[in-house]
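Page 47, continued from p. 46.
Same chain as before, 613 aa.
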Amino acid sequence: FNLGNYEKAIDSYKMSLELGSKLRNGQILWEAYLELANTYIKKGDYYSAIENLKNSINIIENIRSKLVLEEYKYSFLSTNKRLDSYYKLIDILVKIGLRENKISYLRDALLFSEKARARSFLDSIELSKISFEEGISQKLRYYEVELMNEISNLYTKLLNPELTENQKQQLYNKLEEVEQELENIRREMRKNNPAYANLQYPQFITLDEAQKKLISKKTLVLSYLMSSEASYVFALTKDHFKVIPLPPTEEIKRLVRNYLIKISDPESNDFNNGYELYLTLIDPALRHFSGIKRIIIIPDDILHYLPFESISILKNGRNKWLIENFTISYAPSLTSIKEIIERRNDNGKRAKKYLLAIGNPLLEVNGNNSSKNSQVVLKSFYEPGVDVTLDSLRFSTQEVERISSYFPLEKKKVLVAEEAAEERVKEIDLTQYKIIHFATHCIIDDKKPARSSIILKLDQDPQEDGLLQVREIFNLRLNADLVTLSACQTGKGALIRGEGIEGLNRAFFYAGASSLILSLWSVNDQATSQLMQRFYFYLKKRFSVEIALQKAKLELIRSKILSHPFYWAAFIAYGNTQITIIRNNFYPLFFTSAIILALILSIFIKIKNGKSH
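Result:
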């Protein structure tokens, strides 16, 4: 192949396929089919390439379906060239579809794009529907609880300012050991669970299904795909579908990196890069449609870090942002939106209370107290030599108190300072709340996502370590229409090719959230408090999650002090954001009254008719 002797290469790859079939070796087979397709591409035989790429994908899908452990499924597509089979196939389907005007090829390209993204996210949504209590021995359950408690105890010990570096290293080593044992136990629990063994994973949404069941009027879905081969955007409305080639991936990455530096720096006022991004990412699709009011972004690669609402749509004069013309929300894939909506509908039970708000937890560690100091420093906390600095959240208490004032006393609960403790959160029946709001710090670990955590009350109490970690959030049970993570960088985590961000977002969706508010960078405490107050004001006015966030952002944009995108662009709406959480109570009363009046009227008519007779 490297020497350009493609006929000989084809013969050799076909021989590999024969040997792989005899050995029943899937690894040999999918890779041989992929390389055979690459050879046909070099020869210009694209139809043979398509056939072999589909064979490669079928084998990859078959192998993945037989993997027992979730962590193996999670990384399976993103490693060892497996996603190349999907991306190369999509590239060829789009090129032939556009060149020969074959809509069926473009439809297939969209379907394989869905198959190539957020697979583990979809797996986790399906897993969240089953109970892991059945068929599991009490011994394994107790051991899991013991290990979780031991992890909490180790983190509590790490908060001790008197520890030497050697003592800390011993604790880190022990932590690694216990975390590994916890994973082993959870594997054992899954293996012995009959519901897990019979789990059926979702069917991927087709273009027709998306247009008929998922996409509302005046909505545009922009699904991006960025690979080494090429970049595309799949643009869908209820009635139309376009696939549009974009500039090379590296060029898009350069534009995004430069723009993120500008909008996340409150001292910068140069947003011309934003107009380049508009011409690159939005305008090529938007020009094909009219009457659009709502945009759903399905990002890929570096686009996971870009708040599209902050893209500038004017080159000169006053900056005008995309958010001023459209509501904007985000999702891992079209199929994932469908699954989130179906899970909520299938659940049937609706939370009876409106708000659980947790904010400004007391931090009393390393000799510092957050109520007396502007900063608390966790020395060498998550790893040796790396300090975690937690600034005082002076406006956090005000934030939760103001937003809670929009809801009746009996329909809300507020936990601040001493009360904002991990054990308090865990003892509450979280399924009773439509909205769960965290106004705290968080720690994102992009090397070990299970350690990413929301910081609650920190002290030397061994009961809980004060870190609500991803591994613990997975064990929570929510029935929330919305979880708001009003903290720094809550939308970040490990960026995995084809999967997107693994972090707090995935854990809360698994636990039962339908939509999330996340942040993409370190946010300003006071500006965040203002934004959240206005966001909840509009939620209470019975606007959907995405419209309420848009209106809150527009207020900051129109202010003089907080108009810079640094203050408002970091927060994004993710998931089923078209949901309206607070509904008008007038209508049930109206219909009840109407029914009673109708009954009275019918009785009156019968009596009158009886007298006449």
